[in-house]
Specification:
Strand order of the largest sheet: 3-1-5-6-7
Shape: globular
Radius of gyration: 16 Å
Structural class: alpha/beta
């Protein structure tokens, strides 16, 4: 009951803050799976709408290779890239720094023609580990909501929520890298 209550409290906060948004206030989001230029339904695509975004490839199901020109023409305002603890960039509980995540963001930004995409121009390319989603949606969605609507979630600290969850339910301290860049890294 305590776990369910914790989850619901944080998910309700996100829902409450985004519920009055007009469609024009919701950023258009390209969610890239683990493999470059691949879309895959899952935790990141499932978090976009509940966190106040518009998935530019909402009509796709399953895992699909994406034409980079299609991303350019859709001009997302935010790009979310998934990673996993055994992938590069390194992430999760055992990741010790953000060097590989920063390099992966540079790779994405340097794709041919992508410098014209609003997300790249505005520095809104983010990487998130599936380790954040495998813990619980309250944590994962807190990172996504903060990235999509920093002005609505200025007081939200996803790392503090993550840390509290780990301490309260697993009895372990927060360590590692689950999302990059954090708002204070920008």
């Amino acid at each position: 009951e305590e776990l369910v209550s914790f989850e619901q409290e944080h998910l309700d906060l996100i829902e409450e803050r985004i519920k009055g948004l007009k469609e024009s206030d919701k950023p258009r989001v390209y969610a890239e799976s683990y493999k470059d230029l691949q879309y895959g339904t899952g935790s990141v695509t499932n978090a976009i709408n509940p966190c106040g975004g518009i998935n530019i490839f909402e009509e796709l199901n399953g895992t699909k290779d994406i034409d980079p020109e299609k991303v350019i023409s859709e001009n997302p305002q935010v790009i979310l890239k998934m990673t996993f603890n055994t992938y590069i960039p390194a992430s999760g509980y055992d990741a010790e720094n953000t060097t590989q995540m920063a390099a992966k963001i540079k790779d994405i930004e340097n794709r041919t023609g992508w410098s014209n995409i609003d997300a790249v121009k505005d520095g809104r390319v983010y990487i998130i580990s599936s380790d954040a989603s495998s813990i619980h949606p309250s944590i994962f969605n807190s990172y996504i909501a903060k990235w999509l609507h920093p002005e609505l979630f200025e007081d939200l600290d996803p790392v503090a929520i993550h840390s509290e969850w780990l301490q309260k339910f697993l009895g372990i301290d927060f360590k590692g890298v689950y999302a990059y860049p954090l708002m204070e890294d920008n």
